[in-house]
Structures are given as structure tokens and as C-alpha cells.
Fold this protein.
Amino acid sequence: MNSELFTSFFHGILSIGIGEIAMMMIGFTLIFLAIKKKYEPALLLPIGFGTLLANIPSSSAIGEDGALTVFFHAGILTEVFPLLIFVAVGAMIDFSPLFKNPSLLLFGAAAQFGIFMTMMLATLFGFNLKEAASIGIIGAADGPTSIYVATRFAQNLLGPISVAAYSYMALVPIIQPPVINALTTKQERQIKMVGHNREISKTTLILFPIIVTVVAGLIAPSSVALIGFLMFGNLIRECGVLSSLSKTAQLELGNLVTILLGITIASTMTANAFLKTDTLIIIGLGLFAFIFDTAGGVLFAKLLNVFLPKHLKVNPMIGAAGISAFPMSARVIHKMGQENDPSNYLLMYAVSANVAGQIGSVIAGGIILSLIPLLN
Amino acid sequence: MIPDNFYKALTATGVGMTSIFIFMLLFYLVIIFLEKLFPGKANIDKCEKKTGEN
């Protein structure tokens, strides 16, 4: 009787396995990286702590009635959390730097190259097309888009994809410079760009999100939710009559959903689901995606320079800022520009390309959602 | 042996990248169009000043 009571009471400690211990170590590592290294703390800390909650044996946080599982069904499977994050992100984006240099929009397309390269590579590792597309979208460098696509196409891979996406976004300052240096000469990195510093009218800023939503929605209806919620957030920001809602979307809504999103994703990070060879492959492919995004942007800029007259040449480093990791990527490019020539101020152009990358990543997500079911 | 999915992914790459570029070109045109229709205030001010000076 005493032994039965002992076993039942200490069920948690007695039933812990190596897998659970390993997952808890991963949880501790994510918390450490978030606090000590400040790697995307808003997401990695909730994911890390959620990993602890999900891997304590017989945890009441997961399972049929567990709070994390309930949140997962209500917020992730229904796609509500990522879409609400898009409203918050949209309210934070200022498109005016892009309007001053609209041609830099093209870099927001070129730097999505890593998504597709990674998707192809993932198929060689035996992933099916939908799983490969979900892994490839890590290259969007956009956490909510990665989560949104993975929820639709590969819920079984949601945990590793989210961790990879957010980890590599935090590592942009480490990943991008060596790739850029390998693909450019010092002379190219010193190119000074000619830009326009004109004022953008309020009407333009208001009409842009509306027109983009309608145009993108009519061409790719699957992208309506993704682009629509992003642009809705931006419209709240730019309309000028909803400053209170805009602030709420940027701060309270963004923060609340970020907390819930992170900790809820962790409910998928149980030992059985996470400790697989596939997870390591996904983490590796995520790095590949970021490298090829950077390379795609830089090489596209170099290609453009072949055709552009000398006074209009683009600094190829700007191409690397075409990813969605805002504003990290822009800062990295500006810093590299300063290191190569202290009188070269690339920040404005890098921010423009970076904003283009934010649009490009969402468009890429929408296109993947439309295209893959047709090919599968 | 290369899996069938690889060729599908290759097709997706071609179609996908082309589509993203087309979207971005469309948005570029939208911006240019909006800028022409609703030019920023500073542009007008500068033009007026220049005209005055001349």
C-alpha cells in the first residue's frame, strides 16, 4: 500500500525518461539564449518555458484538457494567433522608406530565393512536397508566415520549423556578413547609392495597403488572409483616425499574442515529436535557407549592376536586406557599409529593401499556399 | 535516385519566383501610380519655391 502510494505520488519523477530530460535541456537552452544572448527573447523564452511545461511527465498543461493543447487548437490550428500577429506587424511597418526607393521592391522578391532552394533540397531528404514547402518557408525569415504555412501543410513539423525560423532570425548578424563578403568585392561593397528623399503623401500611404490587398487577393486568393491582416494593421496605422487602435495593435495585441503563440507552439515540442533526425535536418535546412536568401539578394543586385549605368549602380549588399528580418538585416548592411567606407550611409536603402522583404515574405507564403496543392 | 517531388519543387521554384517578381513589379507600379496621383507636399513646396526664385 505504502509502495503504491509512493509510486502514484511521485509518478512524475519516476516516469521521467531520457527524452523528457533532453527536451528540458533544450527548453533551458532556449531560455538561456533568450535571456543571456537576447536571441528573439519574445518568442524563444515562451517556447523554452513551454517546452518545460510540455515535457514534465503527466503534465496537466498538455493532453486533451491541457491548457496548452486547448490554446493550440483554438489559436494555432484555427490560424488565429499568426493572423493577429500580422495585424500587429502591419501596424508597426512604415512603408514610406520603400516609397522613396520603390525599385528596391525587387530585392524583396530576389531574397526569397532561399525558400525555394531549401524546398528542393528538402525533397531530396525524403520530405513530401507540403513538408518541404513548410521547411522552405523558414527562408521567409518571417516567424508568423512560417507558422501559418506549417499549420496548413505540416503540423507535425511546427515545433522544429518555429524554433529554426526564430533562431536564425536572431542570428542574421552572424549568418549574413560572411555570405555577403564571399560574394562581393570590397569595391562593390563601397558603392554609394543615389536615392530620393521626397515626402510621401498621406493618401498614398492610406491607399497602398488597400490596393495591395485587393490586387494580391484577386490574383492569389489563398494569400488574402496573410496579406489582408498585415495590410489591415498597416491601414489602422496610416489612416490617421485610429491612433489608439494602432498603438494597441503594436503593443498590447502584439505582446499578448506573442506570449500565447510562443508558449502554445511549445506544446508540440514533446520528446516523441521533437527528438528525431528530421528535427536536425530541418534545423540544418533552415540555415541553408537563410544563406541562400542572402545569396539570392546579393547576386540579383550584381546582375542588375551589369545593366545599370555607372551612376545608378546598386550596392550589392542592399540585396541581402531583402529578407523579412526587420530591422536586423538593414542594420547589418548599414554596419558593413560603414566598415568598408565610413562615409557611405546605406541605412535608408537597406531599410527600404528590408520593408520590401516584409512584403515579399508574405507574398511568398501566399504563393506557396496557392501553388503547392496544385502540384501535389 | 531523385524523387518525383524534387521535380515538382523545381517547377514550384520557377513558377513561385516568377510570381513573386510579378507581384513586386505590380506593387512598384501601384506606388508609382499613387505617387503621380497624390504627390507628397514637400515636392510641391520645392517646386513652388524654385518657381518663385526663378
Notes: The radius of gyration of chain A is 22 Å. The CA atoms of residues 23 and 271 of chain A lie 6 Å apart. Chain A is about 75% helix and 0% strand.
